Amino acid sequence: MLENLQTVGVDMGYGWAKIWSDQQYHKFPAVISWGNDRNLARVVETFKTSEIPLDVEVVNETTGVKGHFFIGDLAVREGEQPTYMWSKNKAADDMSLACLATSLALVANNEQQDFYVITGLPVAHFGTQLKQEYEKALKGSKFTVKFLSGYLEKQTREIRILAAKVLPQGYGAYLDQLLNANGNVARTEYLAPTGIIDIGFKTTDIVYVNDMQPIDRSSFPLELGMSWAYEQLQRQLNATYDIQKSLEEIEEIFLNKKVRIHREYRDITPWIETACRALTGRLRNEIARKWANITDLENIVIAGGGGVALFEYLDYPQKILSTDAQFANARGFWKAGKRITGGIKDDTENSTNNSKVDQTG
Ligand SMILES: Nc1ncnc2c1ncn2[C@@H]1O[C@H](COP(=O)(O)OP(=O)(O)OP(=O)(O)O)[C@@H](O)[C@H]1O
Ligand SMILES: [Mg+2]
Asked: Which domains does the chain have, with CATH numbers?
């Protein structure tokens, strides 16, 4: 049965959901809405195989709750009143669980799939009861996810979460640096004191790790992320061109570095640089207040989508940008899972083969 256990790292951010598994990885905006019949839209979509519209019916087999949802880009495009999944208590939020189940369905190796899920909670919520509640809610839960549109139309995935572990967000980015794909320690320089700065959409998680151990005293959340820079741009666009843009639209403008005004594109690189510099300055000040001895840190790992945007503005000499930084947490969680599932497999082999000595203690 363990051969069948699929290990998946899931990082549900305030802005984007990221999923990492052996064969596949995905990201989609952490936005959800109730679904409706897409009679017209569906006709064209069956020809397009590049995009998977997350038009899903999710049944939580444990609680009996059933719903039809649009998730990610589809919710942004076609959903009525799409909302970000910003609830604090993910265990008690049906939409948040539906989103998790859908992300597992996307990467499932088989139509019926058992999972080992490693996921994160913001550093701000980690020390609370929420972590236990979330782990408890996930363990043993069962979902059926049916795709209602796109080339996966009518396909169903039966998802069962056999084991679950919840780690602090940001710590995933640390494990990603330290471990290889089998979950073994590969880069020993990360056993030295290491700081992680995981810059997200709404928040930045700061984690201090020494010899694989996160240190509470020096780990903290900041209520400051890329959305602050987007708000600066939003105001500037409004003041200069008298246009109103939503945060999702601003995010797109930020990534393209230009905005369409009537029929022309205007380059807004200087505004972006100013906003990034201002955000970096604010983050730096907050971090300096809590990390008294930054010089003692051997490594400073910069992660998160915001890490990609702000890396060049951060002037720590020990800074390292995670590869594919927006996925760093999800990939690190997955590696942590490989470490542990590897252990589970060894243990079962040991119990069926008495000649082997269990060295794990
Ligand atoms: N080059 C880039 N690649 C990826 N993301 C980028 C890049 N530049 C800027 N970003 C932005 O980084 C932001 C943060 O992405 P990320 O997925 O890390 O946030 P999150 O984990 O959802 O948020 P939080 O950590 O606050 O919960 C996104 O808004 C994204 O637009
Ligand atoms: Mg994040």
From this structure: 2-168 (3.30.420.40), 187-326 (3.30.420.40)
